[in-house]
Task: inverse folding
C-alpha cells in the first residue's frame, strides 16, 4: 500500500510572502534566522553547528513569520547530540529567496562571526537554488528564439560563489571545526517541467522540452558543488541522489537508485552529466513521490512544489525576528545511524545525508 506523508506546514503562500520572495533583489528576500539547541540530559557541554543558506536551510514553509524547527541542519544536530553525548546548538543564518551571491555576501561573509565561535564543530551551507529557479522562470517566459544564456549564467554564478564560499569558510571557520559540508540541489518540479517551451530553438525552429534543458543545468551545478567540495576539504551531501532516486533497485542494475545517482569522487563532469541525464535518467522520480520501496512512498516536497516537507512544528523566523530556543531531542539514539523517520520527510532525509559525515567525536 502506498503511504504518502505531507508536512503540516501552510500550503499556500500569503500575498506578503509572494512579494517577499518574488525577485532577485535583496529587498525581495526574507531573513529567517534561528538558533535552536538540542538539550541532552545529563550534560552541559555544548557544541555548535552553523548553517548558511537560503529558504531550504531556513525551513521555509510559506510563512513570513515562522519556519520549520527541524530543518535539515537541526536534524543533523540531533544526530550529533546522540553521537557525542552533548548539547548541540544549531545556528541557521539564512535568507529565503537569496541567490548564491546574496548568500555568500550577506550570510557567509557578513555573518562569519557565527562560525568563528570556539564551540563550532560543523559548518554547512547550501545555495544556488534561487539562481536556478529564477533562470527557469525567465526561460519559461521566453517567446521567439530561445535564449539559453539565462541557464548558463545561473550555472556560472553557482560555480563562482560555491567556490568562494568554501574558500571563505576554510579561511574563517574556527580551527576547532571538524566538518565542513555542502548540500547540493534536488530538482523541484521535475514532473511539472515535462512540457514544451514557448520559445523555439534557433537551429531547429522547434520548441524544446523544459526538463530536457533544466536537468543538465542542475547537474552542472551539482557537479560543481560536489567536485569543489572534494578539492577544498568539504563533504558533499548529495540531495539530488537522496531525493530523486528510489531506495530500492528499480532498473535491475544491482544498485539502489539513490546510491547509483550519487556523485563519485574524482569523476569527470562529462561522466557525471552522462550518468544523470542519460544512463540513469529512467530512475529519476519527482520527489513528491519518493519511493522507499516499490510499493510505498513519501512526499518530500510541500505543495508549493519547491520546499522540503518537515515534521516537529515551527518556530518564529522572519519579519518579526527569529527564535533562540532550547528543547529536548525527539530521538536520543539512532539504530543503524538512522532515525525512525529518516526517509519520511524532505528535511529529515537531508539532515540524515549531512549526518553520515559527522565525526565520531567532537
Result:
Amino acid at each position: 500500500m502506498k503511504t504518502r506523508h505531507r508536512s503540516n506546514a501552510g500550503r499556500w503562500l500569503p500575498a506578503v510572502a509572494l512579494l517577499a520572495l518574488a525577485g532577485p533583489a535583496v529587498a525581495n528576500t526574507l531573513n529567517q534566522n534561528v538558533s535552536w539547541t538540542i538539550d541532552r540530559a545529563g550534560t552541559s557541554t555544548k557544541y555548535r553547528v552553523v548553517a548558511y543558506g537560503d529558504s531550504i536551510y531556513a525551513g521555509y514553509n510559506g510563512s513570513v513569520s515562522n519556519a520549520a524547527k527541524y530543518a535539515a541542519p537541526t536534524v543533523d544536530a540531533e544526530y550529533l547530540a546522540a553521537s557525542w553525548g552533548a548539547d548541540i546548538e544549531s545556528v541557521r543564518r539564512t535568507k529565503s529567496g537569496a541567490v548564491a551571491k546574496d548568500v555568500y555576501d550577506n550570510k557567509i561573509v557578513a555573518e562569519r562571526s557565527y562560525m568563528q565561535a570556539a564551540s563550532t564543530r560543523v559548518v554547512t551551507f547550501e545555495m544556488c537554488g534561487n539562481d536556478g529557479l529564477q533562470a527557469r522562470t525567465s526561460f519559461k517566459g521566453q517567446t521567439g528564439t530561445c535564449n539559453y544564456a539565462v541557464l548558463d549564467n545561473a550555472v556560472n554564478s553557482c560555480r563562482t560563489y560555491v567556490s568562494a564560499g568554501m574558500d571563505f569558510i576554510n579561511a574563517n571557520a574556527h580551527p576547532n571545526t571538524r566538518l565542513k559540508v555542502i548540500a547540493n540541489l534536488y530538482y523541484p518540479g521535475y514532473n511539472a517541467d515535462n512540457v514544451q517551451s514557448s520559445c523555439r530553438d534557433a537551429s531547429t525552429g522547434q520548441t524544446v522540452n523544459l526538463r530536457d534543458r533544466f536537468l543538465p543545468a542542475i547537474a552542472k551545478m551539482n557537479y560543481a558543488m560536489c567536485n569543489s567540495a572534494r578539492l577544498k576539504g568539504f563533504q558533499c551531501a548529495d540531495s539530488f541522489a537522496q531525493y530523486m532516486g528510489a531506495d530500492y533497485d528499480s532498473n535491475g542494475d544491482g544498485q539502489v537508485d539513490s546510491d547509483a545517482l550519487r556523485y563519485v569522487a574524482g569523476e569527470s563532469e562529462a561522466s557525471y552529466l552522462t550518468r544523470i541525464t542519460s544512463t540513469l535518467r529512467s530512475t529519476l522520480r519527482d520527489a513528491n513521490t519518493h519511493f522507499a520501496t516499490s510499493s510505498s512512498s513519501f512526499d518530500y516536497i510541500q505543495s508549493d512544489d519547491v520546499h522540503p516537507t518537515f515534521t516537529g512544528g515551527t518556530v518564529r523566523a522572519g519579519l518579526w525576528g527569529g527564535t533562540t530556543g532550547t528543547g529536548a531531542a525527539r530521538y536520543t539514539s539512532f539504530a543503524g545511524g538512522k532515525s525512525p523517520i529518516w526517509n519520511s520527510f524532505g528535511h529529515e532525509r537531508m539532515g540524515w545525508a549531512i549526518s553520515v559525515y559527522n565525526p565520531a567525536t567532537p
